[in-house]
Amino acid sequence: MRTNRTQRRDLNPAPVAPAATAVALLLAVVVGLAALSPSRPFQPWPPAGGFAGPTVGGPAGPSGALAGSSAGPDGSSPSGPGAPSAASGGPVTLLLGGDLLLDLAVGRTLAAEGAARTFAGWLDLRDRWGPALGFANLESPVSDVGEALSGKRYTFRAEPPAAPALREGGFEVVSLANNHALDFGTAALLDTLARLSAAGVTAVGAGADAGEAYAPRIVRAGGADLAFLAFTDTFAVPVAHREMWGAGADRPGTALLTERARVLEAVAAARGSGADIVVVSVHWGYEYVRRPAPAERALARDIIDAGADLVVGHHPHVTQGLEIYRGRLILYSLGNLLFDSEKSPDRAVAALVTFVRDPAGTWAPGECRLRAMTMDRRSLTPCPAGDAGARALLEEVADLSRALGTRVRLEGDELVVEGLASPGSEPPEEAEVGGR
Questions:
Q1: pLDDT above 70 (res 82)
Q2: Which of 126, 140, 159, 261 could bond 82 through an S-S bridge, CB–CB 3.0 to 4.6 Å?
Q3: Concatenated DSSP letters for 301-367?
Q4: CB-based burial of residue 180 (10 Å sphere; 0-12 exposed, 13-18 middle, 19+ buried)?
Q5: Residue 38 CA from chain centroid, whole number
Q6: Packed helices 260-272 and 294-306: angle between N→C axes, nearest 10 degrees
Q7: Domains plus CATH for the chain?
Q8: Can you tell me the mean pLDDT for 238-253?
Q9: Could you give the CA distance from residue 386 to residue 381 in angstroms, rounded to a whole number?
Q10: The predicted structure's pLDDT at residue 433
Q11: Which distant-in-sequence residues (6+ apart) come within 8 Å of 183 by Cβ?
């Protein structure tokens, strides 16, 4: 069982005495020299100098806040709809969605009717399930700068008001590691990062350089520090643009899943940083394929072996199964959460994952529930009780999960994962990685 090496860190430390100040200055010099080392696994977030590109509003992050925190401008903890209290010592709950596109018809609904109407189904789940930290894959930049990439069949860009609408709609953390983050070039990506930060939304998986893109973003919730990382494959990006997609030493971009060694190093570094819970988002897989490939299952297990507690997949645009490995959870694809596409299913799913802490202080997934929403390519609305389409989708996910060796059961309008370890219990037996 993993040991908990986390030390509690106060976002608002008390004033120190002059002697302590001198010691702190000496330590700062040492840390600064260490930061020059090329072997440093990741950099703190946000960068001290702000974003290396267009910025909107105030600084990139609050002064004195925990590196990577989603704290507000005053250093406070997440306070959006249903956000868990940082002072709480109870379980930590995440509400997870898949691909979220705020362009096209969704963008028009958002502009005309606002976040409460557009994300009604998502907000309904937050009301039903209680305080939770909301996460999804944001499938476009949010900007009004840049030009659409030539030779790319689909290019998306959400309007700037989408950034505060995300927070109002119940999304505290989003991934930008996907095949649309740079649809309008690096200027739009940097503008997106600045706008999301100003809106109080934590963006992960992209940055002004590789150090930022591969760095975890630390969010405090329920008395725990959660490290979020995100990586994307590039096979859905035209060959002519693939080189620009990955962040470099002095090039903005995303964190690439194809850099396998670096991915595992980043996960291990996040675990070693003292984070209580490590969440890894992966944009991978084949579109409209319902089962993960053996290579994806093997990589997911490697990511957990490196230190992740939860792997959240998306990109196939359909929902795939769930798997438990070493007591940790793999959601291979949550499908489209809200996406304007003729091929999109008319139901979307969200996963509620609750982490619990054992007597030794180690956090692990203790509960996972899936629930469906109605998705009409413009907005999310709650499914009525006993909705046949919702039950059919959950039954499909149940069958796909059982094929991966996962025990699940339908409980009313929800799919519940069985076999997750309660504090102090042994993890269930693991299924073999094999055929499709």
A1: no
A2: 126
A3: HHHHHHT-SEEEEE-SSSB--EEEETTEEEE--B-EEE---TTS-SEEEEEEEEEEE-TTS-EEEEE
A4: buried
A5: 27
A6: 30
A7: 70-417 (3.60.21.10)
A8: 94
A9: 15
A10: 65
A11: 140, 141, 148, 149, 152, 154, 155, 156, 157
